[in-house]
Amino acid sequence: MSQEFFGSTQKEILDESRSIVQKYMDLFIGKRDWLTLLRYELLTLLFSSMPGALGFALRRFFFRSLFRQVGQGTVFGRNLTLRHPHKIKLGRNCVLDDFVVLDAKGKSPEGIEIGDNVYIGRNTVLSCKDGSISIGDYSNIAGNCSLLSETQIKLGKYVFVAGHCYIVAGGNHRFDDLTKPIMFQPSISKGGVIIEDDVWLGAGCLILDGVTVGRGSVIAAGTILTQSVPEYSVVIGSRSVRRRDRREILEEP
């Protein structure tokens, strides 16, 4: 099967014309620059898993040079996974907990942008695949969440995402051709995911491509959203039950 059917990451891994070092630089560093590679390797080797207050202080000082931009007061937990960090912007007073993944790989120049006073919880993954992710000021993303973007994911200010949520922009495939495996059929994009200001996503929510969650909405734990939600809605089990502002009953989406 021709590699034209594979995603960009698989193409890079399977490309036999490149050496192992070139593949590593393309996937993790994002640049074929030996000085950038050396700095990345030294800093992650020496400080990434260092425990205690010393590791905390040294990462805060040295890791800044890996990113496009880091605001004052931002701190880094242990064992972060960083891919294409030169395409990642962090605001002031951000907190990245242990084992966070920030993956800005892909051809899009936008990458990942995180605003001021944002908390990213333990084991949470922010991953771009030729897409972009932006998170507004004062937002809080709890542990074990996954934000995966082939197009765009935009979170506004004061957004609270509880644990184990999954937000995916893109990643859909056609499946009408029975002669080809689904993974080889064309991708479908519905425009990404937009979550406006002051939204609360309960634990275990699944937000799919093409969804906009209006400002001030509350999405109950375990909800699967396949359609957009108007502002100030309360949604339980994919059913809008009332408006926060007028308390009226809404029809099912």
Tell me how many strands there are: 25
| CATH architectural designation of the domain at 67-243 | 3 Solenoid
**Helix proportion:** 10-25%
Strand content: 25-35%
CATH topology of the domain at 67-243: UDP N-Acetylglucosamine Acyltransferase, domain 1
Question: What's the CATH C level of the domain at 67-243?
Answer: Mainly Beta
Walk me through what this model shows.
It is a single chain. 17% of the residues lie in helices and 28% in strands. It is an alpha/beta fold and 253 residues long. The chain starts with 7 loop residues before the first helix and ends in a 10-residue tail after the last strand. Residues 1-6 have low confidence and may be disordered.
Secondary-structure map:
Blueprint (H helix, E strand, L loop, with lengths): L7 H7 L5 H10 L4 H14 L4 H11 L6 E2 L4 E2 L4 E3 L4 E3 L4 E2 L4 E3 L8 E3 L4 E2 L4 E4 L3 E4 L4 E2 L4 E4 L2 E4 L4 E2 L4 E4 L2 E2 L13 E2 L4 E3 L4 E2 L4 E2 L4 E2 L4 E2 L4 E2 L7 E4 L2 E5 L10
Parallel strand pairs: 1-4, 2-5, 3-6, 4-7, 5-8, 6-9, 7-10, 8-11, 9-12, 10-13, 11-14, 12-15, 13-18, 14-19, 15-20, 18-21, 19-22, 20-23, 22-24
Antiparallel strand pairs: 16-17, 24-25
